């Protein structure tokens, strides 16, 4: 049952990631525009070109705000990745009473007493 629920969640996350693919591409392009305009803004000396690069940066930033649903797609891809990475990991079992030397101290003491 646990595997069935995990597979169902993976299918739903894959659908979310695929439906957000356009927004993710738009966000990447907007980030590139904002990054490039910021670099050019800091590099230029002319006031006119600073205004032009600032306007280009604001246009890129508005495109970045328009593609905010990409965050859901990125989160879905990340959850899918971590789920895939941890799919076949063994569950770490708690140590049993026989393996823990402190839980069976009285039993072991009695065994030592009987061997004398």
UniProtKB/TrEMBL annotation:
Q: What is the lineage of its organism?
A: Bacteria, Bacillati, Bacillota, Bacilli, Bacillales
| Organism this protein belongs to | Lederbergia citrea
- Give the residue spans that cross the bilayer: 6-36, 48-81
**Protein name (database record):** Flagellar basal body rod protein
Q: Which UniProt keywords apply?
A: Cell projection, Cilium, Flagellum, Membrane, Transmembrane, Transmembrane helix
- Top-level taxon of origin: Bacteria
Region annotated Disordered sits at: 92-116
């Amino acid at each position: 049952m646990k595997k069935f629920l995990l597979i169902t969640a993976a299918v739903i996350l894959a659908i979310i990631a695929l439906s957000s693919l356009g927004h993710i591409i738009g966000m990447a392009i907007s980030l590139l525009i904002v990054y490039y305009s910021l670099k050019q803004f800091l590099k230029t000396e002319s006031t006119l070109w600073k205004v032009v690069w600032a306007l280009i940066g604001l246009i890129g930033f508005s495109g970045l705000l328009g593609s905010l649903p990409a965050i859901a797609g990125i989160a879905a891809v990340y959850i899918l990745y971590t789920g895939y990475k941890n799919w076949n990991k063994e569950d770490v079992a708690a140590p049993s009473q026989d393996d823990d030397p402190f839980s069976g101290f009285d039993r072991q003491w009695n065994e030592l007493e009987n061997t004398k």
